[in-house]
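Researcher: We plan to redesign the surface later, but first we want a full-length starting point. Tokens attached.
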């Protein structure tokens, strides 16, 4: 996503839109998600990007410190306040939530939708959800359908064929031709699985070269 957004500066009414792509994998609470959004903020302009690279190091340092300070009620309270200060800078941005279906199950989908609405209505943000809806548990699917129309203007369903997925994963490298043909016969249309297959194949390929050389 970074390379796509960096192709040109995105502006709205003369305001440069920054962007933040965050994975919810394992995320279990709203404060952690808010801090992650700030930590991943990027800007298409080089000047702003260097600024945010410096600022982006601050939350991770504070995250380590806050784990210790939360043991002390008074100090921990200020730790939470500073975390909210970081999030207050999240505005005029494109925010992309990924891996929603892989979040901590205790983290309510309703709270994520609530945050998306807040960013849209109060922070001039454009919000995107990237997810495989079929991987959501039944309760989450119902909640997703309930809040979707209130939060989003539309949706794009990506349903590539096995041929398209194999072209993305294997490219035109002929050394993958045999596993590509098997993937098409099955057929496999999960790009993540195909890329894992490529990595495993490359590891075995390197090992086999070493065996022959010895």
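Model: Full-length starting sequence:
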């Amino acid at each position: 996503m970074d390379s796509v957004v960096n192709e040109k500066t995105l502006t709205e009414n003369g305001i440069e839109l920054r962007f933040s792509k965050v994975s919810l994998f394992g995320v279990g609470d709203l404060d952690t998600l808010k801090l992650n959004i700030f930590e991943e903020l990027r800007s298409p302009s080089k000047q702003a990007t260097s600024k945010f690279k410096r600022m982006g190091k601050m939350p991770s340092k504070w995250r380590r410190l806050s784990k210790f300070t939360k043991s002390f009620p008074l100090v921990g309270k200020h730790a939470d306040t500073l975390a909210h200060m970081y999030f207050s800078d999240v505005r005029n941005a494109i925010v992309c939530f990924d891996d929603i279906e892989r979040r901590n199950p205790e983290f309510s989908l309703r709270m994520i939708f609530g945050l998306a609405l807040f960013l849209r209505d109060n922070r001039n943000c454009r919000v995107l959800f990237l997810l495989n809806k079929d991987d959501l548990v039944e309760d989450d699917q119902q909640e997703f359908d309930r809040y979707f129309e209130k939060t989003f203007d539309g949706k794009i369903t990506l349903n590539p064929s096995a041929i398209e997925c194999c072209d993305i994963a294997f490219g035109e490298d002929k050394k993958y031709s045999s596993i590509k043909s098997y993937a098409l016969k099955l057929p496999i249309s999960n790009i993540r699985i195909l890329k894992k297959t490529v990595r495993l194949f490359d590891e075995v390929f390197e090992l086999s070269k070493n065996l022959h050389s010895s």
